[in-house]
Amino acid sequence: MGKTNPVYRLKGAIFGLLLAVLCHGPVSAQSGPIIAVASNLRFVIEEVARSFHDESGMSVRFSFGSSGNLARQIIQGAPFEMFMSADEGYVFRVSEAGASVDQGKIYAVGRIAVYAPKGSPLQQMAFPADYGGILNKQTAQRFAIANPDLAPYGRAAKQALEHAGLWQAVRPRLIYGENISQTAQFILSGSTLGGIIAYAQALASPFKDNGDHQLIPASWHQPIAQRMVLLARAGETTRRFYAYLGESKAVAIFRKYGFTVQ
Q1: For residues 207 and 67, what is the distance between their CA atoms, to the nearest angstrom?
Q2: Residue 117: which domain range?
Q3: What's 31's domain CATH number?
Q4: Beta-strand runs (E) in the chain
């Protein structure tokens, strides 16, 4: 394992700690209904929630996690009122279990980006052309993606690496995040060369100021169709928020973070 620049390591530890604080538990309000939200949406959905509150005076809270884990919690009876998944398949599972009012609707299509933090030897390298040589070195550090079995963004990352012909080179170096937020935490900790994260994360702080990203072509992986659904216990505030996500202000925020919205 190669040595890491001490400054790079210290900065990574600081940003990793900040991200760790940001990545757990319900947030955004002291009271209000709790919405289960895929981790890749953290930055965009909190901005949407502030806009919603400014217009309606209503507040919602969020519990972030991998789509697979959130779906399991919902089926087991977790007290969520709405589910915003990064993979529509998990919404269908929740619907089949009788935990939702219907099958919901697609609210956005996500993208992925390869990200290299400051100080990483990958920072100035073109993806995928220059990655193979570095990842094949015995001294190469870890490379982070979300768990493909739990997180849709991890599955897309694996598909993109396979398409690029890098999967075999990177596989021995992989470290898996339970969700895309934990994956980003690994990257900013300074313990990895970089990794693949949601494009929305790459466009937000602290990522945009502390590394470089390259948008991965959408054709390199299956579409990340993100679906939301009202759950059986949904109340008036949650229903209002669900409707607000289709309004122009919310759509503009999603687009600002790199999502495709019809």
Answers
A1: 22
A2: 6-18+110-220
A3: 3.40.190.10
A4: 34-38, 61-65, 82-84, 105-110, 112-117, 142-146, 174-177, 192-198, 211-215, 224-230
Number of residues assigned to the chain: 262
pTM of the model: 0.80
Query: Is 262 a member of any domain?
Result: no
Q: State the alpha helices, DSSP H only, in 23-146.
A: 42-56, 67-75, 88-96, 131-135
Tokens read off for 117: 């933090």
Q: Give me the amino acid identity at 95.
A: S
Is the separation of the CB atoms in 37 and 84 below 8 Å?
A: yes
Q: What is the rounded average pLDDT for all residues in the chain?
A: 88
Amino acid at residue number 174: L
Burial class (CB in 10 A: 0-12, 13-18, 19+), 75: middle
Q: How many domains does the chain have?
A: 2
Residue 195 shares a structural domain with residue 122 = yes
Q: How many CA atoms lie within 13 A of 8 on its CB side?
A: 17
The reply to whether 136 and 95 lie within a common domain is no
Check the CA dihedral 231-262-156-241 and report its sign. Answer: negative
Q: Is residue 1 assigned to a domain?
A: no
For residues 45 and 226, is the Cβ–Cβ distance under 8 A? no
131-168 per-position pLDDT tens digit: 888 887 756 789 999 999 888 899 999 999 999 999 99
Q: With bands split at pLDDT 50, 70 and 90, how would you rate the model's confidence at 20?
A: very low
pLDDT tens digits, one per residue of 189-246: 888 999 999 999 999 988 999 999 999 999 999 999 999 999 999 999 999 999 999 9
- Give domain status of residue 145, yes or no: yes
Residue 261 inside a domain? The answer is no
